[in-house]
Specification:
The chain has five helices and no strands. It is mainly alpha-helical.
Length: 129
């Protein structure tokens, strides 16, 4: 149940805040394609898409053309949250227990070459001819 609710909430968030809402207009695209197919039975899907997306023209059905997916873009939903000035956040210290962990050394002296770290950025001393 939690997984289903998570998927629904994530889908709702993505549809509201991105261009994914355009995918909800696909039935309009299919319906408009069949309208063009009735007028011109030889029109292929590629020709229909080129007509409406690659070379759009203002013709008799321009209003319907503007309702197709990814033709018109709008601003996605923007959510802004503010916190009241009287809001207080308190941490109870009795719930926080200090973590006890073994001390881990930051470097191993056996594998560290003495003087190597300081000479890494020096220019070479021997020129190869």
């Amino acid at each position: 149940m939690k997984k289903l609710i998570s998927i629904i909430l994530l889908s709702l968030f993505l549809v509201c805040t991105t261009e994914l809402y355009q995918l909800l207009k696909i039935p309009t695209l299919v319906e408009h394609y069949f309208e063009h197919k009735e007028l011109n039975p030889e029109m292929s899907l590629v020709a229909f898409l080129k007509t409406h997306y690659q070379h759009p023209a203002k013709d008799g059905d321009y209003g319907k053309d503007q309702k197709l997916p990814f033709v018109m873009h709008s601003q996605p939903l923007v959510l802004v949250f503010t916190v009241n000035q009287n809001f207080n956040f308190e941490i109870k210290k009795d719930f926080l227990n200090p973590l006890k962990s073994p001390k881990i050394p930051s470097k191993d002296e056996d594998f560290c070459y003495k003087g190597f770290a300081g000479s890494v950025w020096e220019p070479p001393r021997i020129l190869f001819a």
